[in-house]
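Changelog-linked ticket: calcium ion example.
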Amino acid sequence: MLPATINIFEKAARKAGRILARDFGEIENLQIQSKSVGDFVTSADLKVEQSLLETLQYYYPNANYLTEESGSIKGKEETIVIDPIDGTSNFIHGIPHVAIVIGKIVDDEITDGIIFNPILNEFYWASKGKGAWCNNKRIRVSKRQDLTECLIGTGAPFGGRIYSDYYKELENMSKFTAGVRRLGAAALDLAYVSTGKIDGFWEKDLNLWDVCSGVLIVQEAGGRISEPEGSDWTTKSRDILVSNTLIHKKLIKNLTLL
Ligand code: IPD
Ligand code: CA
Ligand code: CA
């Protein structure tokens, strides 16, 4: 049986997911028919978030909300964190690698989280102490130890977020691993570490809504989370390094010996 919180998050995500999937279908047409794709996407982000809030606020009327599109909504109890579409650039380009993210934080600790890709119907969830799951199957991080066999995800910075050390980080990671992947949705990068599809992931300057659910899912799947140089990750951190635990120290070395 699903924990009560995950049940509610799933209900909210599946309802909002229908809106996301419908608009995704439209965007494939719009790509050919219209130049106003950007406006359309903004409206999809807002519509999905509104739908999520409507369901969640019914069940959690007193919660604080931290959302990407509506900002903070002050409440009295736990904090519910929402990213209505993680992977908006993928969405705009008709790439079906997108997700809805909902997480719950109590006293600075992530207690529950879901990541849902409504196009591929992949529903990832974790509750503290209850393991990590995808579509009713328990998920685990990979067992790879040899970096030359490992695929590492990253979020390549763009625009104003570019920092010069990134290219050295990328060089090290490319040189010593089986390759680097830039998949375009940080939440799903963490979900993919949790299923062992990729073995590690790093990105700087992320928001809590990008990673909150993924952090718990990775931990419950046996993975490790820290800041890229090895210090503890907290809900205030903006930079993250994720791994299957076994290769964590080696990844820190690649990110610090620049
Ligand atoms: C973005 C995605 C992307 C990451 C960016 C995020 P958004 O979120 O997760 O993979 O590289 O840092 O901002 O804007 O699509 O919700
Ligand atoms: Ca995001
Ligand atoms: Ca988003």
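Closing comment: Example verified and attached. The first helix runs from residue 4 to 33. Residues 83, 86-88, 155, 184-186, 203, 206, 210 surround D-MYO-inositol-1-phosphate (ligand 1) (CB under 6 Å).
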